[in-house]
Design brief:
The protein has 18 helices and nine strands. With about 450 residues, the protein is α/β, with parallel strands linked by helices. The chain has two domains: about 160 residues, DNAb Helicase, Chain A (Orthogonal Bundle), CATH 1.10.860; about 270 residues, Rossmann fold. It has a nine-stranded mixed beta sheet, with helices on both faces. About 0% of the residues have low confidence.
Length: about 450
């Protein structure tokens, strides 16, 4: 922009801001409309910032604003030269109250433009940092752009009158009755879906258990069930690589022994099942990031990119919480830092309008209890995630808690039994369901699914 064009632009911005303040002084009863929409930061001229701050302080103290008090304040503080001229400028023109809303919109637009210009400068400086690798640069650049474009200046969309809220609620109810509403993403396990109603958009769901209970296998199983309905899924794997994840899906789909598959010792009939599984999975909408040591900003950047690539995301799986990188300066209080990570991921679920499944370890406090079923307090060592998360699901395999328990379970034929405990659900029921874990195929089976499949006649 040429220097004289920039000068004219700044002059227009200043005139618009003075116009708004003039309307307020002519119609002081409309301060409510402005105070709930504009903050001091939205004004770019230092003089209009100061004047608006004084008017806001008057309003907060007395529920009204006064031109006389504004003049006396400006004169007493001496911060603005010639306060008489300022008051004259604010009150000499005539503006109708109809101009209030358009003027507010122009000020908000100017503010957004300034944020984008500052973001461009930050990205330019970032590009000059030769110590950053390309992935760090992309993550930080996307974060800067997101912050500049995502800051809302429209508070009205989060404020509802009773009539509006009732109508929205009733419309959603009608949509559910007519099977036209999204009531939750089904996991593919009928027993679990009947209890939780599926994973809701914008919700953060924790799947937690002690070591080797099958958390990752369960999440991969859900991912496979979802993509087979042609719903896009993104997996952020901070532990396993992409090939291992896909190997598990192939083994689950083909129903072949995982060890034999990994060693290349499958027979001809099993090879045919593997080939069929590859055909079944080949075109399905799955994207995997398997880079270790990512922080939340990098996870956010990748998921935004995946959403753009796939058009939308139906489900995000992050494996797992304790592997997300936390900056060294936050490590003095690990529990608090982890809690902040979980809060950021919950906000990310809302931003992307997608359910996020976050896998987590639990503390070993359960080992001293007689009943070793996990409870919400077992998550305490990982920050306040039980309070932040929208849903918490625990996996519990009693046969896996001790050698004696395993021997007894084998005798009773219950070694595959897995209790899926819904310990928290913001919008649904809590309780538990039983699944079977087939370790040979690294997959979970729902008795309800088996019952349904058995009832379908062979054609």
């Amino acid at each position: 922009m040429a220097a004289n064009e920039k000068l004219i632009d700044n002059l227009d911005i200043r005139n618009t801001e003075f116009q708004l303040l003039g309307i307020l002084l002519q119609y002081p009863d409309r301060i409510d409309d402005v105070a709930d929409t504009l903050e001091i930061k939205h004004f770019q001229d230092p003089q209009t910032q100061l004047i608006y701050e004084i008017l806001l302080n008057q309003f907060q103290q007395n529920n009204q604003i006064s031109r006389t008090k504004l003049f006396l304040k400006l004169k007493k503080d001496g911060i603005i030269k010639n306060p008489e001229e300022i008051i004259e400028r604010l009150t000499s023109g005539f503006n109708t109250v109809d101009e209030l809303k358009p003027t507010i919109e122009i000020i908000k637009l100017n503010y957004q433009r300034q944020l984008l210009l500052k973001a461009a400068e930050k990205i330019k400086l970032l590009a000059e940092n030769t110590e950053l690798d390309i992935s760090d640069y992309q993550a930080r650049a996307q974060e800067i752009i997101f912050e500049a474009t995502n800051e809302s200046t429209d508070l009205d969309k989060h404020i509802f009158m009773m009539q509006e809220a009732l109508m929205a609620s009733f419309q959603e109810y009608i949509n559910r009755k007519n099977k036209e509403a999204d009531t939750g993403l089904r996991t593919g396990f009928i027993s679990l879906d009947n209890l939780i109603g599926g994973f809701k958009k914008e919700h953060l769901n924790i799947i937690a258990a002690s070591t080797s209970m099958g958390k990752t296998a369960f999440a991969i199983n859900i991912a496979k069930n979802v993509i087979k309905r042609n719903v896009p899924v993104a997996i952020i794997s901070l532990e396993m690589d992409a090939r291992e994840i896909v190997d598990r899906m192939i083994v689950q789909e083909a129903g072949v022994n995982a060890w034999k598959f990994s060693q290349g010792e499958t027979n001809e009939e099993e090879d045919q099942r593997i080939t069929k599984a590859l055909d079944n999975l080949h075109e399905l909408p799955l994207v995997i990031s398997d880079e270790r040591g990512l922080n939340v900003a990098q996870i956010r950047a990748r998921l935004r990119k995946f959403k753009a690539q796939l058009g939308y995301l139906g489900l995000v799986i992050i494996d797992y919480l304790q592997m997300i990188h936390i900056p060294e300066e936050q490590m003095y209080n690990t529990a608090r830092a982890v809690g902040q990570v979980v809060l950021q991921l919950r906000n990310l679920a809302s931003e992307l309008d997608v359910p996020i499944v976050l896998i987590s370890q639990i503390s070993r406090s359960f080992t001293s209890r007689q009943d070793k079923r996990p409870v919400l307090s077992d998550l305490r060592d990982s920050g306040n995630i039980a309070e932040i998360a929208d849903g918490v699901i625990f996996l519990y395999r009693h046969a896996h808690t001790s050698a004696a328990a395993r021997e007894k379970a084998i005798e009773e034929g219950t070694e595959k039994d897995t209790e899926v405990i819904i310990a928290k659900q913001r919008t649904g029921q809590t309780g538990s369901v039983k699944l079977y874990f087939e370790s040979e195929y690294v997959r979970f089976i729902d008795p309800e699914n088996l019952s349904l499949e058995a009832s379908i006649p062979n054609v």
